[in-house]
Amino acid sequence: LACEKSQTAVTLAADRWLENKLASDDNFCSDWLWMHNRWRAQGDPCRRLRIQSKRSILKEALELRGLTSLPRTTPFVLRMPNWLGDVVMALPLIRAMRAGRPDAAFTIMAQPGFVELLKRLGLGESWIELPSKNLAYYWAIFRERARYPQTHILFTNSIRGDLEARILGAPQRFGLVRQGHPRPLLTDNLELPTDFDLTQCHQTHLWEKMLRRFGLEESIDYTPFKWTSATELSDQTIVGLICGTENAPEKRWPVEHWRAFLEAALTAHPTVKFRLFGTLRDRALTTVIAQGLDPQRVEDWAGRTDLLEFADRLVECKAIVCNDTGGMHLANALGVPVVALYGPTNPVRTGPIFCTHKIIIQAPDATVTGGGTMASIATERVLEGLKEVL
């Protein structure tokens, strides 16, 4: 090889020789590809989420080819959770995986309502919107097999998600196994020990343990995402209220408490506008809460936004007062300060994880890991929390 007598120069020259040889000789190319697959370079499950081979000369190799970054060509699939809050808690881990495997093309598999949000956050190269749950569900999944994924990582724990992964055909299917819940369709897993206390581990940290098992070395970055709103930001101070919950009525602060809080907050903060958020199903709650109050200062946005518009409106807010719900996690991920109310649920496990101002108010009859009633949270305590973030 005509090159300098250094390890880096010899390696790069050998790589270039091999590239030319592969391009010029079909037989050599097929033989080499067979051996490459047999050697399973980068294929060890315990090393899958990092670049293992020739990392030391990656910078020089890119410069030689006139590249600033590796082409993302190695196909991975990430199966996202089904609830917004869980999706948001997985985002720092996707960011870390993308840093650890800069050569990987990530296909994000998610509920249709989440895909546009994840696109705006720049977390994938391609997308699979999960189909409607009907008789044609698995046929729609089968038609995605032509993507030929090499590795399928599941943030879900369901048989449905495991069967999706098996149908897509990735030879590596990674997930988390809890005691008493076997997952035979996975090829590799992190099995939690019998004495592992889930109540003491945040969901993001639990998934991190799984990804470390598969070779992730990158540190987890909890910096909020930058979000450019499609609407013009208001000069007025706006406080958002998320009064409903996605899936559990017992997680809601009672309507009469929200009403009392809002009446007191309007008096305590005379220049602040309050904006009520929620889904169409929450409209019955927000209508009662806003009834008779000044519509110039209390806006009812429940049921009026899709997820992207919701995010646009969240970043307009100076703070969010909310139940433990997906909107709380989204606001936290976008850098909006939150005052989060926890009763029966566990803030150790599902608290806001991103590094921005957050105040967690637990029910006085709750333990550190939850178990309290939302009605026991006093209006005065929530007013104090709002004053602190403002």
Describe the SSE topology:
Blueprint: H1 7-24, H2 26-39, H3 58-64, E1 74-79, H4 84-100, E2 104-110, H5 112-120, E3 126-129, H6 137-142, E4 151-154, H7 159-168, E5 172-177, E6 188-191, H8 203-213, E7 238-242, H9 255-268, E8 273-277, H10 283-290, E9 298-300, H11 307-314, E10 319-323, H12 326-333, E11 338-342, H13 347-350, E12 358-362, H14 379-389
Parallel strand pairs: 1-2, 1-4, 2-3, 4-5, 5-6, 7-8, 7-10, 8-9, 10-11, 11-12
Helix pairs in contact: 1-2, 4-8, 4-12, 9-10, 9-14
If you had to describe this structure to a student in words, what would you say it looks like?
The protein is an alpha/beta fold. The chain folds into 3 domains: 7-64, no CATH class; 74-213, 3-Layer(aba) Sandwich (Rossmann fold), CATH 3.40.50; 238-389, Glycogen Phosphorylase B (Rossmann fold, 3-Layer(aba) Sandwich), CATH 3.40.50.2000. Helix content is 37%, strand content 15%. The chain has 14 helices and 12 strands. The chain has helices spanning 7-24, 26-39, 58-64, 84-100, 112-120, 137-142, 159-168, 203-213, 255-268, 283-290, 307-314, 326-333, 347-350, 379-389; strands at residues 74-79, 104-110, 126-129, 151-154, 172-177, 188-191, 238-242, 273-277, 298-300, 319-323, 338-342, 358-362. The strands form 2 sheets. A 6-stranded parallel sheet has the order 3-2-1-4-5-6, sandwiched between helices. α9 (255-268) packs across α14 (379-389). The chain is elongated and about 80 Å long. It starts with 6 loop residues before the first helix and ends with a helix.
